[in-house]
């Protein structure tokens, strides 16, 4: 979501004013600079008298007690290492009459002026003023330029950014735009009522809700819901990505938080929205490199600000995260983010609703059946579905069609699930091996009872993989029974077993299969108690990302002995899965051969083709 642009709009006219001013100043001062008084040498009184007597003086001006005079011819002054035609002499307070008489006698013109001599401070100031002004202007301009060019991150513009960052938004998003998510919408409905008329709640002494944490997988519409909440309530919205708080300057994160809360309070009723809260709100003192000072200060400031709310401040702090597990417990304390709203991946109905919202934008052909598309996209988030519609529209545009057809959606979905098709020249023997491998997966998936229905098998390179067997669950599941997982393991390892049975050797093509299968088997053994030897004990390793903190610092909470048992159980599980796959392949060897040659020819087989091939093989 785009924040408001931190840069103030450029003030070009101001630039011009400054330049004009500078030029005018120069023009004004240039003439006076040209007839600036020429340099003068300071003559002691005695020397002046001597030179006067020698007849070396051509004219004098008297200012107060100072004489400013000219020599008839320029004189060399070795001490200053230069010639002077002008001199200055301080006259004593007495005995000047003799000098005046002498001047008169020699017919030297004498001028008497008031005030100070030419080298007085005023003249110095006058002669340097343009330069000082010029420097100031230059400095000022350079600052402006720096600010304009550095964009963000320039040291100069950082105060400015603090000021301009929190321009409030008034989203016009409505709850209608958030499809599905009925639970979440119901939970935030109460907040809308509060924000619309906070006084009604304050009058009866009800405490204002403070912090609401939106939790859910990426793309489920957390940011969208926050905006819709502000839109429905018609209040000011101050969005802020938590990672933006963290800056290179120490203490800026905290001061931004202060500023943000201050602005929001001044403009209440309002909503502060801190997106990706986990990037600052992670458990303190965790992670590599000790405590991240900046992060902790920012977090502490958020906590302090939330505690500092007065009862009548109609400000609600919303935050979103997809990692509630790593958040600092202090954030969840009552009075802080004590309300939790969970957004789940949409179910089939939810997906239909989301598709409807986003399909409004595009012209759909008559053959498009949104419920059917929703049925074929389990596990897709709201963002994924939006992307699906967009990809379908792009596909239709590429084909120069006016409407988006059902076929476009199929292509778009394949592209999202499997990655874009890739042209890669595969030698025939490798292609044969690929066909064997994928047919192995397919056959075992077809015959095992607890697997998801087959959707498609392909040996056309897509994304990062060379081929793929795709299954599509009939409906989404929230828990998985053991037999489902065991069958899944067998399907995963079947590609490699088919290669071994049909070609006599295995290949590197099973790299990812083995990796996935091992991970699944390990979880079955160490987390879900699905192995007799280990039993119902949680022996999971830390799965935390090392940079995310928390669990990293803790030691493995199982012994070497347990580790050995786990490894053994995992291996046994995998080996027995291989055996199941191998038996199926041997039993249905003829059908497998048939499938291999069909796949090698057609390269891509859909569910109907697979069914047909394997069924007719039976008769
Ligand atoms: P999150 O913040 O949970 O990662 P977003 O709110 O940024 O997800 O969602 C990204 C986009 O996906 C939204 O802008 C919206 O277009 C679409 N989207 C996500 N969930 C929904 C939904 N429930 N209804 C409609 N559109 C959705
Ligand atoms: Mg988001
Ligand atoms: Zn495989």
Q: How would you portray this structure in words?
A:
The protein has 619 residues and is α/β, with parallel strands linked by helices. The protein has four domains: 43-116, 2-Layer Sandwich (Signal recognition particle alu RNA binding heterodimer, srp9/1); 175-342, Rossmann fold (3-Layer(aba) Sandwich), CATH 3.40.50; 352-416, Orthogonal Bundle (Helicase, Ruva Protein, domain 3), CATH 1.10.8.60; 428-616, Peptidase M41 (Methane Monooxygenase Hydroxylase, Chain G, domain 1), CATH 1.20.58.760. Helix content is 51%, strand content 12%. The chain is built from 23 helices and 13 strands. The strands form three sheets. Strands 1-4-3-2-5 form a five-stranded mixed sheet, with helices on one face. A five-stranded parallel sheet has the order 7-8-9-6-10, with helices on both faces. Strands 12-11-13 form a three-stranded antiparallel sheet. The longest helix has 30 residues, at 121-150. It is elongated and about 140 Å long. It starts with 11 loop residues before the first helix and ends with a helix. The model is unreliable at 1-11, 149-164 and 544-555 (pLDDT under 50). Bound molecules: adenosine-5'-diphosphate, magnesium ion and zinc ion (ZN). Zinc ion (ZN) binds at residues 437, 441, 495, 510, 513.
